[in-house]
Specification:
2 domains; alpha+beta; 8 helices
């Protein structure tokens, strides 16, 4: 090989080595902060999984820069995520000063994309159209009843924390009465828990008894179920004194409603399915005219409320997650023999000095809302609310009974009085794990939405009454005529 050719080959090899070395350096510099840029682009960052054994070496100058960027303000979740990501970025740079500089630039870009921190002081009210409080299932039988008197069993634990980007935005620390109940029969109270939810339950000093249908032949008719709805809820919120990125909240009622108390209404399933059958007074309350234009309940709201009852729109299977069997057996629903009276079976559930938490099932629904009483929509946006029009509610049953007074719910099942009744003769009873109420079901099959009444039984002919025959001729009805058979010695007069 000639000297010229050797020099050419050596020069080409040297250039290739330098190109590969440059490419390696470029990848080393770009990879850490490219990942940071991807995670910080929107300001909505999912925290990565960190290895606790990783040693993150950050020069003092970098720490000073980060401190200067957040001085004078509390760290928001987004800013904290930026700090975590930039630490990981620096950890991959080693002694490369250019890489560290790139990480700092990406960190500043991440901070710029974060939403502004919440104001140091926020207070006011969120005003949803309604809140679902419970579902009351109708028992079978005209003389049957379900009683929730002197009990806090009926109710649910509510939360709207999933309306925000960060699930720990809401916190609650309030226990007590919500206010007087303008609807009369029952009043309600609230108790907070550690997850930012509030249990809202009927108070133990008010009673509620629900009768069965007027016709025992209907068996279980879920068209007569009632859904308990609160029509003037008000959610008072304020910045937490312990953490400015959190909001404390509690329930009260909207004083703008002339009802002057909680407006709690029990809506029959059949009303919600056929709104034109509602009494005028019910329609007037659902219009919520006191709240302003567009604040009345509409068909979409009716469907949302109906969905809280899994049997409202027809037969369905009984979910084992939502419904827990009561009593360990089915309950008699038998007709008596002709001339007799139906029997009655009673059952009660007692709770005392315990905490009941059945959270295996939840019901989530959306409700339109407005803001008022000093709160602005921009305040909620600063706290990361996802939807500017609709709150996302979650209901679960986690009612606490920690007082010395026994809490009891009971039902009484009385069979049909018609000796010719041909429907179900036994009933299963369950407890709703979202709303704490009793639900009734026919064993061996899906719950029916109102069995059709059986045809009336034909009584045996009375030998002391004449036979009556109705005939027709050429489509025209002929008046009935009587046929009377006289036997020899019969003294009856014609």
């Amino acid at each position: 090989m000639s000297a010229t050719l050797r020099r050419y080959v050596f020069s080409a090899l040297l250039k290739s080595v330098w190109s590969l070395l440059g490419l390696f350096v470029l990848i080393t510099l770009a990879w850490p902060h490219a990942a940071l840029a991807q995670s910080c682009g929107s300001g909505d960052i999912d925290p990565p999984t960190l290895n606790a054994s990783t040693q993150v070496l950050i020069p003092a100058s970098r720490l000073a820069l980060r401190a200067s960027n957040t001085s004078g303000q509390s760290s928001t979740p987004c800013q904290a995520q930026c700090a975590t990501d930039v630490a990981n970025c620096h950890a991959g740079c080693g002694a490369n000063q250019g890489c560290h500089n790139a990480c700092d630039a990406q960190y500043q870009s991440c901070l710029n994309n974060c939403p502004p921190p919440p104001p140091t002081s926020v207070s006011g009210s969120v005003l949803p159209k309604f809140v679902i409080l419970s579902v009351i299932y109708a028992p079978p039988g005209q003389k049957s009843t379900v009683a929730y008197g002197n009990s806090t069993v009926m109710g649910t634990t509510t939360s709207w924390g999933q309306s925000f980007q960060y699930t720990d935005t809401l916190t609650a620390s309030f226990t007590g009465s919500i206010g007087p109940s303008g609807s009369g029969a029952e009043s309600w109270s609230q108790t907070s828990d550690s997850s930012g939810s509030i249990a809202i339950t009927k108070t133990s000093t008010s009673g509620l008894t629900v009768p069965g249908p007027s016709d025992s032949n209907l068996d279980i008719d879920h068209r007569l179920d009632q859904i308990v709805v609160w029509l003037n809820p008000k959610l008072d919120i304020a910045s937490s004194s312990n953490n400015s990125s959190q909001l404390e909240w509690k329930y009260t009622y909207d004083p703008g409603d002339p009802w002057n108390g909680m407006d709690v209404i029990r809506l029959y399933v059949t009303w919600l399915q056929h709104p034109t059958t509602m009494p005028p007074g019910i329609i007037s309350r659902l219009q919520r005219s006191w709240a302003g234009t567009g604040q009345g309940l509409i068909t979409t709201d009716y469907n949302t409320i109906l969905a809280a009852d899994p049997f409202a729109n027809g037969p369905g299977s009984v979910s084992p997650a939502r419904f827990t069997p009561v009593g360990g057996q089915n309950f008699s629903y038998e007709p008596p023999p002709c001339g007799g009276q139906p029997s009655t079976t009673t059952y009660s559930v007692n709770y005392q000095n315990s905490t009941t938490s059945a959270e295996s099932e939840t019901y989530q629904y959306g409700v339109d809302f407005t803001v008022g009483y000093g709160l602005k929509l921009s305040d909620l946006l600063n706290f990361g609310i996802k939807d500017q029009q609709t709150l996302k509610w979650t209901d679960k049953w986690g009612v606490q009974f920690n007082n010395s007074t026994s809490q009891t719910a009971s039902f009484s099942l009385t069979g049909p009085s018609d000796c010719h009744y041909s429907g179900a003769t036994a009933v299963n009873v369950y407890q709703d794990n979202i709303y704490g109420t009793f639900m009734f079901d026919v064993p061996g099959g899906a719950t029916a939405q109102g069995f059709p009444p059986p045809p009336p039984a034909t009584p045996p002919p009375d030998p002391n009454q004449p036979n009556v025959t109705t005939a027709s001729s050429h489509g025209q009805e002929i008046q009935p005529y009587y046929v009377l058979m006289l036997l020899p010695g019969d003294t009856r007069e014609l």
